[in-house]
Design a protein that fits this description.
By secondary structure, the protein is mainly alpha-helical. The protein has one helix at residues 7-56, and strands at residues 69-71, 78-80. A two-stranded antiparallel sheet has the order 1-2.
Length: 95
Amino acid sequence: MPFRIEFTDIILILLAALILFGPKRLPEIGHSLGKAISEFRQGVREMTGSFREKATRPGTGATSAPADTVYCSQCGMANVSDAKFCNKCGVRLAA
């Protein structure tokens, strides 16, 4: 087992928790702990999904851009090809 925790150690920890919190409160604690872990996992999934989305967003070099679109080098915003300035940040676009 990880961290060299043996089966008897786990039994002792569970027994101590049962004595400290009581049999009525222990299921509530387990439920809230499980809910916290699932929310943490969901947050990690959302964060990694947003990182993957940013990696494949046009203007980052991961995908090819349409011919009639110019991307701002500063913020990555898509602009029409005849625009001289970025619609989002106002930076002058390359010709």
